[in-house]
Design a protein that fits this description.
Blueprint (H helix, E strand, L loop, with lengths): L17 E2 L2 H9 L4 E7 L10 E6 L2 E6 L4 H4 L20 E2 L3 E2 L21 E7 L15 E3 L15 E3 L3 E14 L8 H4 L17 H17 L14 E2 L4 H15 L24 E12 L2 H6 L12 E9 L7 E3 L5 H41 L8
Parallel strand pairs: 10-13, 10-14
Antiparallel strand pairs: 1-11, 2-7, 3-4, 5-6, 7-13, 8-9, 10-12
Helix pairs in contact: 4-5
Length: 391
């Protein structure tokens, strides 16, 4: 388990170069169960615990809600394990750039939030048996990690998350942040507009481009080049080996090299620099992220269960945690990337300045004609000479 947990040199492990696909059978057998005591989501009639599906991430096996099926995220060549990341025969009618189709209906997939507020949000109660507490793996802090991500993006729990501590009631108010891009700047290069359209850049393992998917593919390519194998959570094709414990140092080196390259730092202390290339993982032009405000309080769940006799009993040595997620508002304001000065703006401004100069030129010409003709004639008739002063 050294690949999943933080690697401690003092722990004894088999010095294996690569693992076979049986590695996933092992972690599938020893994974902790995800005990959802209660779950509610809007007016979902079935048990919404079925909506949480297991996926393999860098933190091990996680459970995700409302993600697209693996066939809509990965290309056909990518190897999948059993029924992991399998949402079933659901055809989604949603894209990040255009939203839901007009014929999506009332119950499309991914599920949509119709209204804001706690009552129309997602609420889950998670049971943690005392025998499944683990103090050796990770940072040893007990509880759960939660992260928000778009349906077509693979989550990376090590990058950004908030916690659900044991015996706590956590409430998260979500505010979407949507950035769109005007079609008028599609003619500009991605480096100038600082984004890619979803179909503009093709990835090897993923069907659609996102910045997160690009970074996962980038670290996968680095690792395959440097270590001749990939980490267990990385996408791979037939013939690609899974790195064993003997490659842990190489895996860390590949991750450090990519992070430094993203910062534009020269890697003078590393070898094989010719194999490291800039990933150029710019944001997607139609991008969606989430801001969340989290509040929490101690939860006396044992008294809460006593007041509800129809709910199953829980061992007092175990722990129960609650999570509620909802949208703060029915509406949100999106931002749009656009050109500051387009060709028409330039012509309009240039024409205005040119017109200003032209106006000055016409006035000057009229004034010159006045002094050279009309004024002289009038002075001759009134005063008998052209200067216009009395003699």
């Amino acid at each position: 388990m050294s690949l999943i947990c933080n690697h401690y040199p003092e722990l004894n492990y088999t010095n294996t170069t690569t693992f076979s696909d049986d590695f996933f059978e092992v972690i599938d057998d020893i994974k902790p169960r995800f005990y959802l005591q209660n779950c509610s989501y809007i007016n979902f009639k079935e048990d919404c615990r079925k909506l949480f599906i297991p996926i393999i991430t860098e933190a091990g096996i996680c459970y995700t809600f409302n993600i697209l099926d693996r066939s809509h995220i990965f290309r056909e060549e990518v190897i999948q394990f059993k029924k992991y990341h399998n949402t079933g025969p659901k055809s989604h009618k949603w894209t990040l750039q255009h939203g839901y189709d007009k014929d999506a209906g009332l119950t499309p997939y991914p599920f949509r939030a119709y209204l804001a507020g706690v009552k129309t949000g997602l609420t889950v109660h998670i049971l943690t048996p005392h025998q499944e507490l683990d103090y050796a793996c990770g940072d040893s802090l007990q509880g759960y990690r939660v992260m928000l991500h778009t349906p077509m993006t693979i989550p990376r729990p090590s990058k950004s998350y908030f916690r659900i501590p044991l015996d706590q009631n956590v409430i998260g108010a979500i505010e979407p942040v949507m950035i769109t891009t005007s079609e008028t700047i599609k003619s500009y290069s991605p480096q100038r507009r600082k984004c890619y359209f979803s179909k503009e850049r093709k990835l090897r393992y993923f069907r659609d481009y996102t910045s997160t998917n690009c970074k996962i593919e980038c670290i996968t390519n680095y690792t395959l080049e440097l270590c001749e194998c990939v980490n267990f959570f990385m996408p791979r094709e037939n013939g690609t080996q899974i790195c064993g414990t003997a490659k842990i140092g190489c895996l860390k080196t590949a991750a450090v090299m990519m992070n430094f390259m993203n910062l534009g730092t020269k890697l003078a202390n590393f070898t094989n620099l010719d194999k490291v290339k800039d990933c150029d993982c710019l944001p997607v032009c139609a991008d969606l992220s989430y801001k969340i405000q989290v509040s929490q309080i101690n939860w006396e769940w044992d008294k809460w269960l006593q007041a509800r006799r129809n709910l199953p009993r829980v061992d007092n040595r175990s722990h129960l945690s609650s999570l509620t997620l909802f949208f703060k508002s029915d509406n949100f304001i999106s931002s749009e990337r656009n050109e500051l000065y387009g060709p028409m703006d330039f012509l309009a401004n240039f024409g205005g300045v040119l017109g200003l100069f032209t106006g000055f030129s016409i006035l000057s010409l009229i004034e010159m004609l006045y002094f050279l003709s009309v004024r002289i004639i009038c002075n001759l008739r009134l005063y008998g000479h052209w200067t216009g002063t009395e003699q």
